Amino acid sequence: MTARRLWLTALVVFLAAVAGVFVGRHLFPAPTPPTGELHALLHDRIDLDPEQDRQLHAIERHFAGRRQALEAAMRAENARLARAIAAEHRIGPEVTAAIDASHRTMGALQKETLAHVFAMRRLLRTDQAATFDAAVMKALTEDTQ
Question: What is the reported pTM?
Answer without folding.
Answer: 0.67
